[in-house]
Amino acid sequence: MKINPYGKTLNVAGPQVRAWRTKRDLSQEQLAAKLQLMGYGIGQKAISRMETGDRVIADYELLLLAKALGVSPVQLLGISDT
């Protein structure tokens, strides 16, 4: 049996993806387009589901999102190293 300490959400990075996306003044569609220009097919609907915690974010997707948003993967995880 799997126990998720974060409740019903399927990821912990979604709120940070949304926060950084809005800080960068990007819509979900614009972020999806940016990822597609980088050669990765992560669409707007997938981004929406990631941000709401309705979809798992794979490790490679976290790296791609971080690169597209110009932040580190650690920032998307919301982890403070202090």
UniProtKB/TrEMBL annotation:
Domain HTH cro/C1-type: 17-76
One GO molecular-function entry: DNA binding
Protein name: HTH cro/C1-type domain-containing protein
Species of origin: Pusillibacter faecalis
